[in-house]
Design a protein that fits this description.
Length: 269
């Protein structure tokens, strides 16, 4: 690794101030993505601002009452904490199931939801959940709807000195996530998250394209008939999808429909 200055702020304002003082600083949460990049010397931050010790950023607040319509997840909540939280498992089992499919036990016990959202890996699982569930990302200065947050491969609408503090996730009537993975990394070649609520149906796809995206045609079909049969014959264009050693764009387009059908069937069961 290259030399850097290490900071461990106790509050969000201290973290923001430390980043602004640095020449080229970076926030460090679980470190599951940043540390490997540093080891490979693909990044050279002047300062690392470790936010893992900030109180309350790891809390998960459940519905509380029957009238509540959302769950709030602190940005530092680990994948395992989200997957095992009784309110998440009880209210959004599709999200809990998705999280169990991330990486391996080591990653799930260190990686954080905020870090995964900020990274926006094109094959990551969390972006599909955040987008399909219509979540809202809260930062130190504003609220960002999921539809406005993911802007490109490894790119988001976050400012350079902006920090995610929590994510509010609406509770759907039904949801499920199914993915087709590479055998080595378990990253999604094509993963589909489906969520049904009283406002309609949202379908988010990860792994198949340069970034997570929604499929409007599937959403319309499922809004009229929330069943796997509603997607029969529906095809996704391969024009903008990825093509690599794992799968061609045409195969990924086929997988999207297959995974979507399975997700709907699972959400309906």
């Amino acid at each position: 690794m290259y030399t850097f200055d290490y900071h461990r702020p106790a509050t969000v304002p201290e973290a923001i101030a430390a980043l602004k003082r640095s020449a080229d600083g970076a926030f460090l949460a679980g470190g599951m993505s940043l540390i490997p990049v540093l080891k490979q010397r693909l990044a050279m931050p002047s300062d690392l601002i470790d936010v893992s010790g900030i109180p309350d950023l790891a809390s998960i607040t459940g519905p509380g009452t029957s009238a509540s319509t959302s769950i709030t997840v602190g940005a530092l909540a680990t994948h395992d904490a989200v997957a095992s939280h009784p309110d998440v498992r009880g209210s959004i089992p599709g999200l809990a199931d998705l999280v169990t499919q991330i990486g391996d036990p080591q990653v799930r016990n260190r990686g954080t939801i905020g870090g995964a959202a900020a990274l926006n890996d094109p094959s990551g699982d969390y972006p599909a959940a955040i987008l399909a569930l219509g979540a809202t990302l809260h930062t130190d200065r504003r609220q960002i709807p999921a539809d406005d947050f993911f802007t490109g491969a490894f790119e988001t609408s976050l400012a350079d000195d902006e920090l995610i503090t929590r994510i509010t996730v609406p509770i759907p009537e039904a949801s499920a996530y199914v993915k087709f993975t590479t055998s080595a990394s378990h990253y999604a070649i094509a993963g589909v998250m489906v969520a049904k609520s009283r406002d309609g149906v949202r379908v988010a796809v990860t792994g198949a394209g340069p970034q997570v995206f929604r499929v409007a045609e599937m959403e319309a079909a499922l809004a009229a008939d929330f069943s796997a049969s509603a997607l029969k014959g529906l095809k996704v264009s391969a024009d903008t999808l990825n093509s690599d050693l794992h799968a061609s764009a045409e195969y990924r387009a086929h997988l999207i429909t297959v995974m979507a059908k399975r997700a709907v069937a699972q959400a309906s069961s």
